Amino acid sequence: MNMTSFNYTDRPPYPFNTSASNVVRAILVALLILLNLSGNIMVCACFYSNRSLRTLCNYFIVSLSLADICIALFAMPFWLVIQLTNNQLGDVKLVLSDQVYTFWSCMDILVGTASITNLVAVSFDRQLAITAPFTYPKVFTHARVIALICALWVYSIAITLVRGFADPKFLQQYYTLMVVILSFFIPFMVMFVMYAKIYHVARSQARRIGGNFAHDLKAAKTIAIVIGTFLVCWGPFFLYNFSTYLFFCCKLKYDIKVMVPAIQCVKWLHYLNSCLNPIIYTCLNRTYRTAFLKLMRSCCSKGNLDEGSFRSSSSTQKKNSEKTEFITRDSDSSENVRKNGKMSSIVEMLRRHRDERKV
User: Fold this and answer.
1) How far apart are CA 281 and CA 271, in angstroms?
2) CA 115, CA 66: separation in Å to the nearest integer?
3) Domain finish residue from 220, 254, 284
């Protein structure tokens, strides 16, 4: 997300620069985009092709994957363009028009907030399924899950519309703080509470049935991966935006050029999160892992089948051509024999006629 609303229009535009370092950064961003698309499209494909994966919780996973796909399509390409310029501030309006900058900023906020809120929905779904398994089917019906997913996207759109249509003075004074609270602080607290409840219930149930320390450690590691990845990828970004907001409110000056490495780092981290979500929320799931392997094997088998059929058709065509060539040669030879036979008979008749005239 790009929430910085400070005015840099007094700066000269930065020309494109295809130096080696810029090209390398652009290639890395392109690889992130491909990794994002491949992983999240695989999640959606497995959900569509495997009926056993069409559970209510996985509806939130698919919604999360769609949000991450939107990040790869509508947010990261602008960041790729920035890598090919001398401007490493993450402010695309210095390179393109203000309208394009506004579009990128709005899409960045929209899909970023949608991704985070879907992570919260996954944590709430898992918490209710584990802590209240008998109540879960009554609370989470198919219609309610679809309605909740739509509500999450409407929530993200509402925050984005404020960025697009609010008064510039409000954007400078309050919008950054509003997004930090609504898109990060509150979602993080909800996720932390939900996974804390999950760990508490898992630990108590393990002790009740005679579980050991290894089981508790495994559950703690899984939750630590989920919470830790979210905090590491999104925390620095919102911390940076909140610090710039404080500098602005306190009217403190700072050198933007000094902040360039920090801006680069936080943007890379929060875009990296959309690539890690398919790994964390699907590869840690045994059913999804099996579906992934089946899908990859089917794709590979189709490729081998196509290659095998191509080879067999090629060999068949080769045999047919050899057979045709042999038949052609045979027919040519027989034709030559017939022609030679006719010529020899004509020569023989001429000889006889000459001998008769001599007699």
Assistant:
1) 17
2) 9
3) 284
Tell me: the pLDDT tens digits for 213-226?
Answer: 555 556 667 778 88
Residues 139 and 243 placed together within one structural domain of the fold: yes
Query: Which pLDDT belongs to residue 339?
Result: 45
Question: How would DSSP label each residue in 268-322?
Answer: HHHHHHHHHHHIIIIITSHHHHHHHHHHHHHHHHHHHHHHHHHHHHHHHHHHHHH
Q: Rounded distance, CA 111 to CA 128, Å? A: 26
First-to-last alpha carbon distance for the chain, in angstroms, is 117
The overall pTM is greater than 0.90 = no
**Which residues lie below 8 Å from residue 230, measured CB to CB, with a gap of 6+?**
116, 119, 188, 191, 273
Answer yes or no: is 26 within a domain. yes
Write out residues in the chain with pLDDT < 70, as ranges: 1-15, 86-96, 209-220, 254-258, 302-359
The number of domains in the chain is 2
Q: Are 224 and 344 contained in the same domain?
A: no
Give the C-alpha separation, 138 to 144, whole Å.
10
Rounded-to-integer distance, Cα 269 and Cα 229, Å: 10
My answer on whether 162 and 32 are in the same domain is yes
Quote the pLDDT of residue 32.
94
Q: What pLDDT, on a 0 to 100 scale, did the predictor assign at position 247?
A: 82
One domain for residues 341 and 245: no
* Shared domain check, 159 and 29: yes
- 280 and 338, same domain (yes or no): no
Side-chain half-sphere exposure of 190, counting CA atoms within 13 A: 18
Angle of CA points 52, 53, 55, to nearest 5°: 100
CA 343, CA 74: separation in Å to the nearest integer? 82
Backbone angles phi, psi at 92, to 5 degrees: -70, -15
Task: Look at the block and give the residue holding tokens 């709430």.
Answer: 124
Number of C-beta neighbours around residue 103 at 10 A: 16
* Residue 230 domain boundaries: 20-284
What is the rounded distance in angstroms from the CA atom of residue 326 to the CA atom of residue 207? 81
